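your task:
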Amino acid sequence: MSMSFDQYMRDSVQPMRDELTNLGIQELRTSEEVEAKLPNAKGTTLVVVNSVCGCAAGQCRPGVAEALKHDITPDHLYTVFAGQDKEATAKAREFFAPYPPSSPSIALLKDGELVHFIERHQVEDRSADQIAADLTSAFDRFCR
């Protein structure tokens, strides 16, 4: 019995997707879904650029999970998956200018405009607790 590469990848990354969707974060899998949600979102929007790398597993996703326990959170929660949903990720990254593509990364937008961004290098060198503290500080500043 042989499994296609695409099926293998879908099965392999599903638990990584589930870590965020189980928190109530909606996946945007196509560029059309991104275009329908991000520019029209009123209030604050968190966008997590998910990834298969170790820093996504060890710091990014756990940091986001911890931050979402805070009293103040964004109005909208979305995720795109770098390397898997390529068109959706590319479209989402258009909203993160002037930052270059980075995964994992975390963006906070207010009324469609970027107000806070955590790049990969800020994930790699920090703990999940430090990422959560960074996010909750941004939530306190922009989500009131």
Summary: Strands lie at 26-27, 44-50, 76-81, 105-110, 113-118. Helices lie at 5-21, 31-37, 54-67, 86-93, 120-124, 128-142. The chain has a mean pLDDT of 96. The first helix runs from residue 5 to 21.
